[in-house]
Records
---
Amino acid sequence: MQFGSLTFLYLFLPASLAVFNIAPKKLKSWALTAISAAFVALAQWKYFPLFAVSIIFQYAMSEFMRRNDENGKKKRFVFTLAVTINILMMIFFSVMNQISGLELPLGVMVISFTAIGYFVDIYKGESEYIHSFPDFAVFLGFFGKLFRGPLVRVGQRKSGPSAERFSLRETGKGLYLFLRGLAKYVLLALPLSQMYGDLSGAAIREISVVGAWMKTVTLGMMMFYDLSGFCDMARGLGRCFGIELPKNFYFPFQSPSVTDFLDRFNMTVTEFFRHYVYDNLRTKKDSAIQFVVDTLLICMLCGVWFGVRMNYVAWGLYIAVFIIIEGAFLRKALLKIPRIFARIYTFCITMLSMTIISTEERVGILPTLKAMIGLDTVAITDEVSYIISQNVLVLVIGMFFLTSAFSTLIRFISKKAPPVYNVFAVAETAVLLVLITGELI
């Protein structure tokens, strides 16, 4: 069971909301812990024991550190053990996924990274321990954020599930945000994924200029709508259950620089690594060498977030190179030119990075790059032309929602004409629900 299923939408979610809102205030964290455990069991029953043992292990390590807070050696040993096990677990499953195609356990990256951040913060005394087991379990394993995040540091955490009584307004806002995220995934990410697969197959048979470019752009759009869709769903579900989760994407493909792109793309992940890497490595006197080293390391780690694969690390290095170039001299020039040209530059650079991510395909990066500039390649094949013609609507809608045009319009209406906005939100919710249901049937 996943978010993009009728079972979740019409059975699991309503039942979960009913259980959560019926539960007394003191038991809401326990209720949400049980709901998250039930979701993992239904989604990946074979990995449920790993999920349960991981949460219990992390809590046991936290409690051991708390009870030995004054004993530096014991506290340091448990801290090292907990962080090492989390790192090894991520590496093991990522490598096994790459080598043998082993399915990744649900939430392994999110839980492990969140736990590492938690242990670092409490070890350094920058945050307080979470004493309650259900609050700790919700912090690490809330089912809404297990797929793609967002990442939340313990210092950013609000209190546990806080809804004292059912709030139709808050639940409505949460469901509205959830449906918009689900629409990104079902109505855009999945069709784009199918289109990307078709274009990859066409490239194996005969690569072309248009095919190479469309394959790259389609992959970039697909990744954005997949990642941002799941994060919007997580934020929406969090709101329904009294948990506030941060934004993770803010129209990254209309950024005026690659530096700005990294600040808008997977924002909580970038901020996570900046906090735990840059803030801990920097010295009192900043230097150009340190800026280069920090940028390379942070960008590579942002790539590793997607999995321990060389092409993800290479993607991070590619992004880092342009951030370093911008930091050295290009950023000032980008601020002087018309913003539209800066956005076009960023869009092209970031979309080209998708050729690195797709290098596991049978058509590698060099043939793709050669095709993009038209070396020994036909302009377009009949197969690519047919694929594009069958997906024109998805491409147009996908390109439109990469921009903030719709969001800006909705924000304007909500400020100037709240009644109109309320009617529109209800209508949009109904339309999205119908379209999503129709696509899932």
---
Amino acid sequence: MKIVQLTDLHLTRPGETVGGRDPNANLDRALAHALEQHPDAETFVITGDLSDRGDRGDYERLKGRLAGLPIPARLAIGNHDDRTAFLEVFPELADEDGHVQQVFELSRGTGLILDSWGPDSHAGFYCARRCAWLCRALAAADGPAYLFIHHHPIPTHIVPMDRVMLRDAEAFGAVVAEHRSKIAHIFFGHCHMPLAGSFHGVPVSAPRGTNHALFADFLEKERLLSSDLPESYAVITVEEPSVTVLMQEYGYQGEVRAGGAPYNPARDRAQ
């Protein structure tokens, strides 16, 4: 089973840039690259910050762009999104409480889209109603569950980044701990940098994102720092008993060289 995770699109009106990059063009490049390299993917999952300012027009353009794909796309929302505007365009993605949450079946288990959006904040939230929804969904899930959420539930230990992490991580973590035997992996975005770790014994990971990149500086206490690292998405491959997550840096513009394999005794030591 293969899933392509894209995150942090930050779409804008055509012609506008974010971080000096064109998010609309970068999404087109990401989709084209993923369709060429991974036509066997079961689904694309986009883990939030679909729009940079939460404009309805961004969601309308995104809906049109995804409609022509041969692979279905699942959507989560992030802190840069606007839930009301998003649901005006994608009303079918609301759960019974009006959150953007969804259960979808996979060939090797169940996928769950989680809503960590909160008003007037870049931090994430997972309230009691959302926790109750997740408990019910996990209880009903047949086989391993794969959770997709925007905000990071684990600390990065980068001070300005952790100010905007999931604030309800303790409540969310209680649900994860209760259903740990069913949860195979938690995927998130938000940080614009590759991350991996575990949360209550469950593996977690995130790729960089399809537009601008941030840079880890553990001495910086106030500002989030940007960089020119390449745009990326994640390729998730499930082959029992393994889950492999590879960050595909489709935005890399440098040379790709054929080098000697480390197991080849005839390789040139100077390479």
